[in-house]
Predict the structure of Replication restart protein PriA.
Amino acid sequence: MRTVEVIVDVPAHQTNQTYDYLIQEGQRVEVGMRVHVPFGNRNVEGFVLGIKEDAQEADFKFALKPVYAVLDEEPVLTHELIELAKYMCEQTASFMINALQTILPAALKVGRKQAVKVKTQEMVVRVIDGVVQPKAKKQFEAVEFLLGQRLPYSATELRKQFSAPIVQSLLQKGAIVTEEQEVLRSVYNSSVYEEYVKQPLTAAQQVAFDAISAGRESGQAMLLHGVTGSGKTEVYMQQIEAVVASGKQAIVLVPEIALTPQMVQRFVGRFGEAVAVLHSRLSNGERFDQWRLIERGEVKIVVGTRSAIFAPLTDIGLIVIDEEHDSSYKQENMPAYDTREMALWRADFHHCSVIFSSATPSLETYARAQVDRYLYVGIHERIAGLMMPEVKVIDMREELHAKNLSMFSRDLLAAIRDRLDKKEQIILLFNRRGYATFVKCRECGYVVECPNCDISLTYHKTSNKLHCHYCEHQEPLPQTCPNCTSPYIKLFGQGTQRLTEALQQEFPDARILRMDRDTTSQKGSHQAIFDTFSNLEADILVGTQMIAKGLDFPNVTLVGVLAADQTLNFPDFRASERAFQLLTQVSGRAGRQRAGTAIIQTYMPDHYAIQFAAKHDYQGFYQEEMKIRKQHYYPPYCHVSSLKATAASAKEAYDLLFAIYQEFKDDEAIQIYKPVPALIARVNNQYTYQCLLKYKDKKHTLARLYDLQQKYYKHNKVSLSISV
Ligand SMILES: Nc1ncnc2c1ncn2[C@@H]1O[C@H](COP(=O)(O)OP(=O)(O)OP(=O)(O)O)[C@@H](O)[C@H]1O
Ligand SMILES: [Zn+2]
Ligand SMILES: [Zn+2]
């Protein structure tokens, strides 16, 4: 008899154990397909992870139940991706079913009934010559035309060209035959992209290119560390060209949806239709079709954000992770996987290389390159002999002394004016969206907070309302203080929206664009903003960190950072590293084709992260930061994980974590800290406590975390989440 091993999707029964079921007569089942099986007294969905061809009844303790139904005609996951799911479970202390669901694209996950439909289109598949006589002039012309086309030809197109009645006559006479054929929704129109011409490499690029070629021979993982504007993209694009020429495929990951328009332009502009694009803004239908294009082997290169690492390619020759240091590569929720680890695993499976590319590599990656775990490939100069941008650090305390109370320092204003006069472009970074950060009463100090979260509300001018950035809550702006009824209730602090307005007041004729979460909530809005700025239809681009990295606008000669300290003041051991990366990256947007300047406004001008960023000194920063990490025992000197407990009552969340703390505190291999409230202790009326774990022995700790997960996932009041 034939049996299958199934991982069942039962929330209250999360184990990594598979269950055996009997395959019935006539059922076609393969590993990687989904099935319906009986579980308890219910019918549940599950994944087939194994098949036993000639199992014996005696092998099983109980009589096996049958597979009710097979849900897929083809496997939705390859063997490789199933193995990857197992690895993901180990790395994140999570459950197999969650890992499988993470890897499977959302489009395939939706239930049977609303499953994404295959899109079809009426196509002319045959043309029969001689049926139509020349005297039926129009019809004859249509047939002549079709005889000169490659079939199948779109019937809709034909109707547009020759009118619907003509096509109808042709069909009635039997001069043409049409058929409904499947079409794949495309996510870009390759004909609108100009060719992205291959550039002869500069000497420095060539050295890097050759080093990478050698590294690829032995399937090594590499760090491509090149200063901003050094042309890293060209180097790895030419590597990909070689990979594709050898018949293999490549994955290129970008950190932000904001960067996909530029990447798609470059890749489609060079490789045309061989490129698939996967990111979070695709519709289910689009994602479904991209996934199937890849599965059918019609795609050579997949470009996308984080989850594109799970693209079902079968013969990968290279994986590139661009802006390797970006925090978006780490998934926040469980399974809290690290895309870089997933990439290394897949590369290992395919015996190919991963290239981690960045101007500001994460400390972990750089440290690995230092001890030769990754091959180090450096490019230390910009394209075309351009200088790195000059960076000026402005001490905002001095502006205050000089009675300048505006958001802009005098130097920045002068520089903006100068660039506007010269018709050069400007990028301004302000890492906070909205209009005003909070509303406060001048008399009693009351700050308007979200009723559901422990966070102040942000005023948005477009809606003229206060918004919570953590839940959906909105409320009107109060006219008097809700606490003391004083009318002196005022907006304080600033965001991108307020900044844009102040800027417009200073420079009434400037064309200003804003890119942040509020202006990019619609599909295609990134592309629209990107195109407008690229086509020189705007002078100033204002935005949050989403504009800080990777973008390549040749006409930008000035970058301003309005509040450099925001990142630095964040209570996280990576705060300095993040600030250094952000400042280096955003400064790097300036002067990519001609000399440029960056102006950084700060209240902490002497902070080492700011100083090293101003000098473009990665090495210097690395050494300083490593000293501090060593002193305080932080990564890369150890691993850290965090445990979060969330519940409707603060006490319950705390009690659970405290119990765990008690369990762990005697483990000599793990250093655990007492539970503390999360940075924002209450979101949507749910309280979160967290505790930090530090350890060297990853295997041991992961095993213990996995046990924790097994023990507490059924807890009906507190949800526990583990981030490794
Ligand atoms: N060999 C070359 N000759 C001429 N121009 C080049 C060459 N290589 C790259 N460029 C151009 O140089 C510019 C910068 O390249 P690119 O955007 O790849 O930089 P990068 O190293 O990725 O920088 P960042 O880390 O800031 O994103 C681009 O406009 C690119 O087209
Ligand atoms: Zn008040
Ligand atoms: Zn809220």
Observations:
- Residues 548 and 582 are 7 Å apart (CA to CA).
- The longest strand covers residues 42-52.
